[in-house]
Amino acid sequence: MAKPMARARKRKPTRPERRPRPSRRNSGRRSASARLPRFTNLLIDHARVLVASLGRLASQPLSTLMTVAVIGIALALPAGLQLLVANVRALSGHWQGAAELSVYLQPDVELTAAEKLADGLRADPWIAEVQLISADSALAEFRESSGFGDALEALPENPLPHVIVVLPAADRQSSEDVATLRDKLEEDLPAELVQADTEWVARLQAMLEVVRRVVLLAAVMLAVGVVIIVGNTIRLDIQNRRDEIEVTKLIGGTDAFIRRPFLYTGIWYGLMGGLLALALVASSLWALDEPIRRLSGLYGSGFRLQGPGFAGGVGLTLAGIVLGWLGSWASATRNMRRIEPGHEK
Amino acid sequence: MIRFETVFKRYPGSREALSGVSMSMDTGEMAFLTGRSGAGKSTMLKLIGLLERPTRGQVIVNGRNIGGIKRRQIPAFRRQIGMVFQDHKLLNDRSVFDNVALPLVIAGLGLKESGKRVRAALDQVGLLHTEKVRPMTLSTGEQQRVGIARAVVSKPSLLIADEPTGNLDPGLSLEIMRIFERFNEVGTTVLIASHDLHLISQLGHRRIELSEGRLTFGGEGENGHG
Lengths: 345, 226
Known about the structure:
The complex is a heterodimer of chains A (345) and B (226). Chain A is of the alpha+beta class and 345 residues long. Chain A folds into two domains: 48-94 and 203-337, no CATH class; 100-197, Alpha-Beta Plaits (2-Layer Sandwich), CATH 3.30.70. Chain A has helices spanning 2-10, 32-58, 61-96, 111-122, 135-146, 149-153, 175-188, 198-240, 242-250, 255-298, 309-337; strands at residues 101-105, 127-133, 163-168, 191-196. Chain A is elongated and about 100 Å long. Chain B is α/β, with parallel strands linked by helices and 226 residues long. In chain B, strand 7 (158-162), helix 6 (170-185) and strand 8 (189-193) form a beta-alpha-beta unit. In chain B, helix 3 crosses helix 4 (111-124) and helix 5 (140-152) packs parallel to helix 6 (170-185). Chain B is globular and about 45 Å long. The chains are: A alpha+beta (345), B alpha/beta (226). Chain A binds chain B through residues 1-2, 4-5, 7-9, 11-12, 14-15, 18, 20-24, 37-38, 40-42, 44-45, 243-244, 246-255, 257, 340-343, 345, and chain B through 1, 3, 11, 26-28, 42-43, 46, 49, 51-52, 60, 62-63, 72-80, 83, 85, 89-91, 93, 102-103, 105-111, 150-151, 154-155, 157, 186-187, 189, 225.
């Protein structure tokens, strides 16, 4: 059959010679210069589809808005929780440095004995600082700060014990070392109670770890939700554009070509959803900023809510884009296959 | 250009649509595929365009056994064939120009070159003035001509048409057939399925006749290839 082909071409003087277009696999045989405009045209087509898919979304503002809202809320939820965990962690970090141990001596320990014990501790290499708070000074301080002055006057004697406050050496502040030190102090000293102030911090950390995991699980589930939402929207879109897909297949459109507008639709959904999520998180932060500042002011702390920051914002938007792309890719690939021209008969 | 070698086709759950059809067509030839509805005309065209696969036998198009073409290679193969359908298969959400340009967009042709080719194709079917309107606003005959323009815009060496005049009155039908003849004159191989024997006899091209899935007339070309 090759010979008649050649003959036919000679018979076509009115038209430029046309060779069958090579498939993409064969394109390696083309020279680089021939491929370059092809690549440029592909880019132009991507740009065209990028704009066209946005136009299509804009032509159905209500349904677009609803889809975007669902994606935005689904993304804002884990992002907001994550931010909450990060803030509580930052807050507890403020206190973790002060890993003090308070040794409440037994009430029958005299002040001189307490001073001797305190001096003994100063020699310990694990200990950086030792401060003795006598029962009298503790009572005076308590009287001043608590406002129970009159009530305290009525007490027959000072109910408070002497307290030795121990600050571990800088290299002995890990929770294990502090626990070891606490056990040692409890054993060595006539102490009623040795309280490590880090304990509650450790508990909070452990709790935060649990919450962090929960947030992570929620994030994974909501991400799957976003993929499904985008996938379903794209599925409906494909059903509505069935004719277009069928015709495009008939005249030789590749799967990639047919999928392209749907992928960009998914990317737009994801981008807009991500930005909406960012806006939701930002406005929640804004709404909480003032009360939190007042609260931390009352506690004499300069703590302020941390925002997601630039990296967090970009990450959230990117997450939206990736999920939108993923959902549309999976849905388009699956649903396009079902539309084949010529199967109706 | 086209060769069928004892081709059988059975659609799932129905009788045989083609039973051992053998025929061949030379490059640059123009032929009509005739027979009653249900005789297997559409099936033959679908096999050529890889809309269907034969149950048995081989179909060779352009020197290539198309049975070996894999699913993902089908788009590239279809781009070498111009197809015209009875119901035009135009997209009504875009202009005539965009409809005709679609094969070129798929092929990744530049905008400037595409514009030139689309206008040339529309000019060849006498519809240059309609490029901005939607296909729905045109008459059936005009819509069919847009369909033809879309089929030829990428200058395929083979043009197949399934009942292109099925919905047209005799005058318009002849006009459409004349357009196909003009493309054939410049070297395009043309195969048209039609049951309009009166029209076909007016034109005097080769006739291939099918009856109940069997070839009853005109299986071999004048040159006897295949």
